[in-house]
Structures are given as C-alpha cells and as structure tokens.
Amino acid sequence: MTEIHPHTAVIILNWNGKKYLGQFLPLLVKYTIRPGTELVVADNGSSDGSVQFLKKAFPGIRLITFPKNYGFAAGYNRAIEATGAEYIVLLNSDVEVTPGWLDPLIGLLEHDPAVAACMPRIRSWHRRDHFEYAGAAGGFIDRWGYPFCRGRILNHIEPDAGQYDEERDIFWATGACMVVRRSIYLEAGGLDERFFAHMEEIDLCWRIKNMGYRIIYQPLSTVYHVGGGTLPNEHPHKLYLNFRNNLLTLCKNLPQGKRGITMMIRTCLDTLAALKYLFTWQPANAWAVFRAYGGFMRRLKHCRNERKRWLARYPLNDHAEIYRGSILVQFFLRKKKTFIDLKFPGGNG
What we know:
about 350 residues; alpha/beta; Spore Coat Polysaccharide Biosynthesis Protein SpsA, Chain A; 2 domains; 9-stranded mixed sheet; 14 strands; about 40% helix; about 20% strand
C-alpha cells in the first residue's frame, strides 16, 4: 500500500523548551485545523522532561526524538528528512500563532510555483504592538552582508502601524516561522549543519534565490515571537555564531566579482566592532568577534568546496533584495532607522 504523506508538516524543533511547549502548543493545536496538516515536535536531546510531557499532554502530536542536541540546522534537516509533506513549516517553540495563521502562507505557495518560501508578520510577544527582532516584516541584507528587516534596523524595532501591510519579495525568511517547499529545501541542500545555529536561514534563502525562486512576506498572517529564549542577542556565544556564520554565508554565496572586496571590507568593519566592545568594557564580546574569524578559517575549506559544488549547478547571482548601500552608514551616520527611510528600490511597503 502506498504511504499517504500529509500535505503540510508544522515542525517545532525543541531543546529544553518544556515551558514554551506547555504555553504555546495548545494555541497551535487550536488554530491549525487544516486537512492534511501534521503537527510535529522534533526533540533535540532535551533534559528538562519535554519528551515525557509531550507524550502525556499531546499524544496526537507526532514526536521525533534525537539522542543529542544537533543544533538548529542539523536538527531540522533530520526532522524534515523524516517527513514527507509537500510543505514544511519551521516554527520556533516560543511562537504564539493566531487564528487562520497558516492558510495565507500555504496559499502563496499553492498559487505561485515560483514562490519557494514565505513568512508571516512577526510581532513581539512582549510588546504586542511592535515587530519582533528575528524577522519582523521580512529580511534583507546590505552590500556588506549585514542583515536587517522591514520593521527592525539593527537594534531599532518599530511599532506595527500598518506601514508594512503589503505583500512583497524579501531576501530571507526567518527560521522562527518559515514555510518552504520540501522539494526545494532538499534540492538546495537544507540548512548548513556546520553553522549549528544562527544565520543558517539566510544562507539557505540565498541559495534558494540563486536557484531562481522567490521568497515572500505575507502580511495576512501574524504570529507573536518571544525571542531570545535560548540566548540573549548580546550573549558572547551568540555573537560568535552570528559573526562566524555571516562570514561563511558571504564566502559561499557572493558573486565572484564581489567576494574579495566584500570580505575585505567586512574584516575592517568587524575589527571596528570588536574594538567598540573593548572600549565599552565588553571584553567577552570583543573576544567572540575574534574567535569568529578563527572559526571561519577552520571551516574555510568546507566553504570553498560548497561554493564549487554549487557553481557546478547554479550561478551565484546578485539580487534586487540586497541593499546597495551600507546599513551601518545609514543607521549611525545618517540616522535612518526604518526601512522606509532607506528608500529601498522596489517600494517601501
């Protein structure tokens, strides 16, 4: 008999998140009543009783258990390989969904085969009228590889006053809540497991863009994200992963003619960032930046091999969703702190 796979799999990757599972799973179950949709929790070797809690409180949710913490990238890769759904939803355990949240996202993929992935409006769970740091109203990067969002430039987060109510193409969708075609996810190679965590969704989205597909922000869907549930934004280990993985992303995906100058400028800018941490009495953060370069160099061979393998299949293109200026110059020198202030080509909304 042919196995029937669910049309959509909503996958939560959990690591010691029993508190959030108890808080947000009831709403996920309540508001995800869609034929052919499977709810999955993939547990990354939790030690807080998450598995026992799920078996008792949510027996209808499919549970995949791993023997250890594989990290965000490898954990999701293993979970997605274990499902056969056409559409995959990557959903953080600390996300509160709302009524009807999933239909507009799946609808985008069903109605346009050129759309490979999409994301909803991400608001802050703590300040519900504001966007949330990790994704806001869609992700972009500038010419030097620094990520930012509509609704969040660096550490400046905007209230949601309807200024980003229009659907539009974006450069990256947040891993906090991303819907992606499973076939394209696998063809793109999935999340890079050497990243472990942080920035891996930007790397994946860049590869998907190089394959010729679109990534879309869908404002008709809204979720609320707690954020910082594992590590706060300025934690040294999180800084280390962000800086290291940003360099790996650039090395792997930049067009040939832009890679050299971009990596050189980034080295200068990151050195300035490390010095700023030193002068503001944050030596652990400064050391995290320097360690990131060591981590990058140890993975440089892998990075180059991945780049060669990719070039044998697809070109490394430039994209309209890469901001041609410097987000640091705009923010610190020109005091432009919103996406609308940037006058980004293709429309502000």
